[in-house]
Amino acid sequence: MINRQSLRHWVRTRISWQLALALCISLLVHLFLLEEAAWQSWFSDDVPTPTLLQAQLEVPPPKPVQAAAVHAAVPRKLPAAKPRKVLPAPVSDSLPQPLKEPSPVAAEPVEASSVEETDAIRQAEIEAWHATDHTGIAEPEESLPPPYQRVSTDFSVYVNGEERPAGSAKIEYVQEAEGQYALRWIVEGRGLLKLLYPTLEQQSHGDIDQHGLKPRTYRYAFGDRASKIYEASFDWETNFITLKTAKGEQRQNLPRDTQDILSFMYQFMFVPPLQEMHVSLTNGRRLGAYQYEFEGEDTLVIADQAMQAVHIAHTRGESDEKIELWLAKDYRYVPVKIRKLEKNGMVIEQVATRLATE
């Protein structure tokens, strides 16, 4: 009895009812927190997954209907549109021709008759071209409509037949007062090519008489380097031409009807192609005699508009360079496509994207 009474007295004096209550409350709080944490984890795992699965399973049903509708429309429209509007088709077909034409003549001298036959066929084509629906070329100049006073043409520049343009070009022709003209041709690269290659600018100024353009000055500038700047001065009173480069000047006899590279392309507004097949040309560095040939007629698509163009090409005897021009028949034979074959085999092509005339 003494021990029990002593124990009860010790408990009553040492442990109060407040401490016992605090211990019970602490135990309940810990149990509640553990259950809450477990409940939250289950909630976060369960909720999003079924909604995502339901959203993905509803997508496939409309697909078969759309695919059938598109498939029915494709075979009717695409085959008819491609051969009419895409420009690279005539480009890719005609690119191998300038590279292959010289080889048969030079590599097979035994077949001389084939060369004569080729010349005869080409001459027959020219005669047929004159005889059909181009009689206006042989008529006097008074019957032709007056030349344009202003021509502005934008070009896209392609290198070696690539589909993406490597640059842009612009040619502007202006008939100034008192029978004078001004021509300016600028070619610029795009992107990285613009950093590697400078701007090419050509200018031609001169008079306009009854025979067409009569250049007085011509300038070729490939960037700012003096070694890439050439100039030509035409003195028609004394019939001399002065060519100026970084190495000095040279004076030569000036043949009648000589043109510079730029004025030559716009002379066809006054003297239509195939009327005179021989021409003297200068690029500011040299003067030479050229002969251009009739290559045929092509249909080009310029700014979504089909154009009939006369295709000519001119070369120089001792050079591998070749320049081809496509002249728009319905626009006084203004050039709408220019292709040049360089000595190193590079092909640079300019195709018009916009043509404005006044």
TrEMBL record:
Organism listed in the record: Methylophilus rhizosphaerae
Pfam families in the record: DUF3108 (PF11306)
Biased amino acid composition, Low complexity: 102-113
Start and end residues of each stretch annotated as Disordered: 85-113
The organism's place on the tree of life at top rank: Bacteria
Protein name according to UniProt: DUF3108 domain-containing protein
Alphabetical list of InterPro entries matching this protein: DUF3108
